[in-house]
Amino acid sequence: MKFIFIEGATPIDEDERQDLIPRHIQTQDELNAFENLNIAQIMPWAHKQQNLLSVRFLKTLHKRMFGHTWKWAGEFRKSQKNIGIEAYRIESELHQLCGDIQYQIQHTAFSLDEIAIRFHHRLVFIHAFVNGNGRHARLACDLLIQNLGNSGFSWGSKTYNHNDLSSLNDMRKAYISALKSADKGDYEKLIEFSRG
Ligand SMILES: Nc1ncnc2c1ncn2[C@@H]1O[C@H](COP(=O)(O)OP(=O)(O)O)[C@@H](O)[C@H]1O
Ligand SMILES: [Mg+2]
Predict the structure, then answer these.
(1) Fewest beta carbons within 10 Å, which of 111, 143, 171, 185?
(2) Looking at ligand 1, which residue's alpha carbon is closest to its atom 26?
């Protein structure tokens, strides 16, 4: 099986590839299409959820998004990746993150968009799962901001064209660069990207 990775995508090891549920998938495009279909199908369920800030919900969301695709959907990763915290700290860090975000909401510590974007950034920084962390953290963040009363984020789709590979690559670069600024405590670029 051939996998092609664009910049910022997490490589999957050989053993992890064994964990793909659909046996007919041969190419990255087929995999993407299969994953996208699975994710699209859970949207009605996702939009009905209320208690988003819990470890249990974050696991369930991943399981629902990728449960037809990967055997380990909804399970935390057990090995180290090039991105992400040490695997054994994932559960406690997610718990802490949920508590911090609840506190920020209760005390209006930042604008609602900034709170949601801080949540997104820390969620991908933790990188709880083997794969799908970006999509999971963007959806979790969209659900949160919608529950808080704002519209969902556009994640660059107003600025960049999804049907043009080079534009898609620029979008990815802008997103990763904004995440790196957020690593240093500057959330402005990521907030701007998420609404652009
Ligand atoms: N250099 C980086 N620094 C911080 N986060 C990154 C970096 N590269 C990728 N990411 C985050 O990790 C995600 C990719 O991880 P992955 O688990 O493959 O998610 P997905 O399969 O949904 O793309 C990106 O969408 C981004 O959110
Ligand atoms: Mg990936």
Answers:
(1) 185
(2) 134
